[in-house]
Amino acid sequence: MKIFDTIKLVVLSGAALIALTLLTVDKPVKIEKKVIDIKNLPKTVELIGYDDLDFNTNSIIKKGTIIFVGNHESIILGNILQQKLNLPTGKFVIVSNISDAPWFIKRWQAHTKNVKLKGKKQTPWIYDRDGAIRNFLQLPTSDPLKYFIYFVKNDGVIEMIYIGKVKKGSIDDPTIKNDTAEVEKIIKGKLTK
């Protein structure tokens, strides 16, 4: 009888985990296409490294800022670009788009991975837990391999300047550092205009 009880426990635990995952995923939000302007930014955001504090979004995203939005796998590229570009603090902002993940992934796994990636760097790193930045920027997908780069122009309009995709497993692949030349050129071109 002990084997039957063990099997029953494993099956019930698996069913509970699946139910918890499905019940805690947020429903998609319908996004209206419109001009993206910094005056309409969400009021506050959460920054990695500052637990339980909200920051005024307008103090982080300003005119002349590059915004890198990445997901589970592609977020590593934002970290690499920030290091390679070596821009002054505040000119490069990373947004970790994890709003479609179940709550326990958002709270532990994704947050822990992002904190580890950020380390002690002073780069503003937004943890978009509720999807406010994602919806504001009108991201077309939350594919874990895709990333999006935006530039805040002098008139306050936020322009998408690049969409890219990393290979599966890139977060653990040291050769990803070699795949940034095209993106770096585009970003530098925007900053010198």
- Output mean pLDDT: 79
Could you say which structural class the secondary elements and strand pairing correspond to? alpha/beta
Tally of DSSP β-strands = 7
- CATH H-level name... which superfamily? Glutaredoxin
**What order do the helices and strands follow?**
HEEEHEHEHEEH
Q: Quick one: biggest sheet?
A: 5 strands, mixed
What is the correct CATH architecture? 3-Layer(aba) Sandwich
Q: Helix segment count?
A: 5
Strand order of the largest sheet: 5-4-3-6-7
Could you say how many structural domains there are in total? 1
Task: Give the proportion of residues in helices.
Answer: 25-40%
End-to-end C-alpha gap: 74 Å
Instruction: Please tell me how large the radius of gyration is.
Output: 19 Å
| CATH class annotation | Alpha Beta
Determine the oligomeric state from the structure. single chain
Keywords:
193 residues; alpha/beta; Glutaredoxin; five-stranded mixed beta sheet; 5 helices; 7 strands; 35% helix
Helix and strand arrangement:
Elements: H1 2-24, E1 44-46, E2 54-56, E3 66-70, H2 75-85, E4 92-97, H3 103-118, E5 125-128, H4 132-136, E6 146-152, E7 158-165, H5 181-192
Parallel strand pairs: 3-4, 4-5
Antiparallel strand pairs: 1-2, 3-6, 6-7
Describe the structure.
This protein has 193 residues and is α/β, with parallel strands linked by helices. It has a single domain, classed as Glutaredoxin. Helices cover 35% and strands 19% of the residues. The chain is built from five helices and seven strands, in the order H-E-E-E-H-E-H-E-H-E-E-H. The chain has helices spanning 2-24, 75-85, 103-118, 132-136, 181-192, and strands at residues 44-46, 54-56, 66-70, 92-97, 125-128, 146-152, 158-165. The strands form two sheets. A five-stranded mixed beta sheet has the order 5-4-3-6-7. Strand 3, helix 2 and strand 4 (92-97) form a beta-alpha-beta unit. The longest helix is centred in the N-terminal third of the chain and has 23 residues, at 2-24. The radius of gyration is 19 Å and the shape is globular. The mean pLDDT is 79.
